[in-house]
Fold each of these.
Amino acid sequence: MGFEKFGIMSYTKETKVEDFVKHLEDGRIMGTRCKKCGTIIFPPRADCAKCLSSNIEWTPLSGRGKLITHTTAHFAPAGFEAPYTLALAELEEGVRVFTRICKDDEKDKLKIGMYVQLVTKRLGDERITYELKKI
Ligand SMILES: [Zn+2]
């Protein structure tokens, strides 16, 4: 138990990587690294997406990266408030992350290639998630 606190809306309470929420609560951005092939995965997964090995370990991520692209959504699914901006960034570790960009940064002109930081974000009701911020 514990994963139900992740994100704006949760559809699952249990997962093999539920420690992810504890790491976020402690301010750590953690991915998983495959011990067999070295692939780093974020958000974390219990099985390697490349070689399917379950021999996985937690690995801290710097969270620093560059913006690859972004888009603003004008239709909001349950729990979201439109408009909001989604962004794809590549972290220093080579991992690509697709998530919301900080609400404060949405009004600024986002530029492809600019530096961003993946940070934890506390939501109401003890919920937590992550988002990208301009550096
Ligand atoms: Zn692997």
Note: Residues 19-25 form the longest helix (7 residues).
Amino acid sequence: MKIAIASGKGGTGKTFVSTNLFAVAEKEALNVTLVDCDAEEPNVNEFLDGKTTSTEIINQHLPVIDKEACVYCGKCRDWCNYNAIICLSENKQIYLIEDLCHDCGACLAACQYHAITEIEKRLGTVTIKAYSNQARIVEARSDIGVYSPVSVIKAALDKVQDTDLILMDSPPGISCPFIATVVPADFIVLVTEPTPFGLNDLKLSVETLEQLEKPFGVVVNRTGLGDERVYDWLEEKQIPLLMKIPFDKNIARIYSQSRLLVREDPSYATRFLDLLKTIEGLCKK
Ligand code: SF4
Ligand code: SF4
């Protein structure tokens, strides 16, 4: 079972839910992996540490155009689905926009004049940590200045094998890094807060998941804040409300000290285990 924990905006408690779910799964002796897919700002390691077993550098192939060999035919530009190549045939100018390149190799195949070769460009790292005998953490971390973390996220997800339960801490928002994380998931937990901003971003996430035809449910964090609109909307849309976590000073303190709520308060260990079972039940439907 692959569960992505996501939110339309940052700071709603996504990592809080991911790490606590992981802790209860690990305590139940499940074979579990938590993948920190928030590659631009991974922070699972603030809550869960482990013994590093491997760190792999993730590279991308980047085309290099030899302007001496190029005849400015424009075929590579036409084959590039990502508009990463600008070729002005009349002016004999050609440019690669590195940040738009998706490493598809089409331009290399297109060029009949052997004017394109490739170099490797470092994008980030994937680190695997053993947490216990049957639990591990995989961290995707993109290098500073890298335009898109998607390749690093995909590389991290590719590393997860032989695991019964995979939890994926998704990047915030609904752009490509979010899509890369939720597409392989069997179920998505959307974490929100009962504020107008929270509701607005929740609606955007739900629209995206509906287009992807993915099953999902919602955890409302910091209940007691804001207003009732998020609950009314969930009811109207018949979206499962999986769990409510109160706006509580003690929970905030535990989180800010990088501790896990399920280890501090047994009632939450039960509640998070129930959440896991509820998701499992919804996945089987
Ligand atoms: S590798 Fe693909 S995405 Fe990159 S420039 Fe070539 S055709 Fe475009
Ligand atoms: S396909 Fe080759 S020759 Fe044609 S514009 Fe691209 S790099 Fe130049």
Note: The first helix runs from residue 14 to 27.
